[in-house]
Amino acid sequence: MRSPKDFFRPLAVGAPEPVRQIPFRPSRMIHFFDPGNEKMVAKVPDMVPRTDVLLGNLEDAVAADRKEIARAGLVRIAKETDFADTQLWTRVNSLDSPWVLDDLLTLVTEIGDRLDVIMIPKVEGPEDIHYVDRLLAQLEARAGLDRPLLVHAILETASGVARVEEIAAASPRMQGISLGPADLAASRRMKTTRVGGGHPGYLVRSDPTGDDLVQGRATYQQDLWHYTVARMVDACVAAGILPYYGPFGDIRDTVACEDQFRNAYLLGCVGAWSLHPAQIAIAKKVFSPEPAEVAWARRVIAAMGSAGDAGTGAVMLDGKMQDDATVKQCQVVADLADELAGRDPELAASYEQATKEALA
Ligand code: GLV
Ligand code: MG
């Protein structure tokens, strides 16, 4: 048994104290770039004000003979770029790869003070997080860091899904989990060949009305990822960390990308990955509550009192019953709006305008 007290003790002499809470910082889009690709690197300074999180990717999509170039590129970018309050994350190579040890050794000792979160791919269970946890503590001590690096797991193995609750609670460093639908599909032997999104073959069909089994029967495509996203959200919230949808590979299909992101948003995710600049705007739109929703939430709170005041009774607003549970939902939306408004003046103005009109 590990005592709860030990949980908050540094795992190496000289390492910083573990965090006790994962701070909520806007992370509507985690924008991936290849730090070894000069064209992408040149765009990084322009991306800083447009994104909540920039992630230097070292894993899949970076070819074996480019791994070291990408790693060195990330070190340089981190040292040379002013990220202001945009977060800098990285995705290191998987724990069974020949590159991950050097990824961690180099990044923590060279730019550990610039990095916010390290994403670990293909996590199989809590033992993977324990390994990274101890190693990071040793490296933080060596680098003299005064704040611990946070860890984000990608949920992309069947074993990881089966143990997602244990992964979420494996370390005080755990910041969040993203769904990795491409690797997860392969690991589960799903018969898809795409990165996220739906599949036209995964459907339900209305009953036949007569002997004809084909005509007049509507079909409804179902969400392949519903179970996993919902389970991931519960595991994350129970552990006090943040859930994210991952990648959507069909860059041209901005409509289905928006649908997939919105499903994740409505189920509780706080953001998604963007693989192309076109997906930044989609994530920003989807993961920021609509001004009308924020105005409604503030109207309910104004009528009922804040969610902290239990026993607010019930009132009718526009014919809809409001009680302690609806005011709590409204508080979630209003709190998110406040957090995003602090980072996004345009959004702040639209929330204020809509709220003024709703409360007039
Ligand atoms: C992401 O890494 C995925 O495999 O979907
Ligand atoms: Mg993957």
Commentary on this structure:
The mean pLDDT is 95. α3 packs parallel to α4 (100-111), α12 (291-304) crosses α13 and α12 crosses α14. An 8-stranded parallel β-sheet has the order 9-6-5-4-3-2-1-10. It has helices at residues 4-7, 38-47, 67-80, 100-111, 126-143, 158-162, 164-168, 181-188, 226-239, 254-267, 277-286, 291-304, 324-341, 345-359, and strands spanning 29-33, 53-57, 87-91, 117-120, 150-155, 174-179, 203-205, 219-221, 242-244, 272-274, 315-317, 320-322. 45% of the residues lie in helices and 14% in strands. It folds into 2 domains: 4-286, TIM Barrel (Alpha-Beta Barrel), CATH 3.20.20; 291-359, no CATH class. The N and C termini lie far apart (57 Å). β4 (117-120), α5 and β5 form a beta-alpha-beta unit. The longest helix is centred in the middle third of the chain and has 18 residues, at 126-143. The chain contains 14 helices and 12 strands. It has 360 residues and is α/β, with parallel strands linked by helices. The site of glyoxylic acid has 9 residues, from α8.
CATH class bucket of the largest domain: Alpha Beta
How many domains is the backbone divided into? Answer: 2
Distinct compounds present: glyoxylic acid, magnesium ion
Distance between the termini: 57 Å
Q: Any idea of the CATH topology of the largest domain?
A: TIM Barrel
Largest β-sheet summary: 8 strands, parallel
Q: Gyration radius, to the nearest Å?
A: 22 Å
SSE series: HEHEHEHEHEHHEHEEHEHEHHEEHH
Estimate what percentage of residues fall within beta strands.
5-15%
Structural class: alpha/beta
In CATH, the architecture of the largest domain is Alpha-Beta Barrel
Per CATH, the superfamily of the largest domain is Phosphoenolpyruvate-binding domains
- The number of helical elements comes to 14
Largest sheet strand order: 9-6-5-4-3-2-1-10
- Indicate the overall shape: globular
Helix content: 40-55%
Q: Give the number of DSSP strands.
A: 12
Poorly predicted segments: none
